[in-house]
Design goal:
Helices cover about 30% and strands about 25% of the residues. It is an alpha/beta fold.
Amino acid sequence: MKPTLFVLAAGMGSRYGGLKQLDGLGPHGETIMDYSIYDAIRGGFGKLVFVIRKHFEDDFRSKIISKYENHIPVEIVFQELDKLPEGFTVPQGREKPWGTNHAVLMGKKAIFEPFAVINADDFYGRHSFAVLGKQLSAMEGWQNNYCMVGYRVKNTLSESGAVARGICETNEGNYLTGVVERTDVERIDGEICFTGENGQKVVLAENTPVSMNMWGFTPDYFKYSEDYFAEFLTANAGNLKSEYYIPLMVNELITKDKAKVKVLDTTSKWFGVTYAADRQGVVDKIKDLIEAGEYPGKLF
């Protein structure tokens, strides 16, 4: 059975003004997501599942899904504020969805095979999908044994300023032991660094793995996520902005020895529009990849 690609797109409606200006960065108006889906298909993925907000379903179907339907089976699931475990209600004043791992939970009734999770608006690159597709294809029937793509930090920086990155800590078997979020990672005087707890500059090796939210799970992950979500809601009852993130769930599993997460190395360069000034750079990078033969001029 081929793995599924699960695309987190519930934030798109708010960010892109109802999808009207879904940013075309390729030569024929291709979005970053188009490149991810093209790469996933050639990386051996057999199904697409999008998690979106219900209110832009029609827009999403006509503008986005219609492109892919003749190439790969597509399903949609919905992330809404009130999709909560039994006994819980939406706190008064809560407006924001519950975060990335809540979005993942929405796939429970649509995904029954190993699956990858990605952000809709990050450019992950061909090699990362090949590596993840190969790993997930071998994970059929596995439990408590997941993976993530660890990007080399040098391949994820912005030329426009400092970025936040989840710095991965691994053991000798390349299994994840923790992810520490650093908010000011940048290259200064030739060295990649961030500010440590004591205010000192900490230098990172060029190939240090970082998490760009590209994960590989098996369906047993849904049960863990459901159970822990109830704990999360109880603990954060008074915080209207708290979010249930994937790294939070993963950290819970690895620190309690409930699951292992293999960190997969990739040579792909990650890029995205972190700053408005990054946009032209992304357009140029895609153009270079097309000229180098990585992608055809027109994808779908």
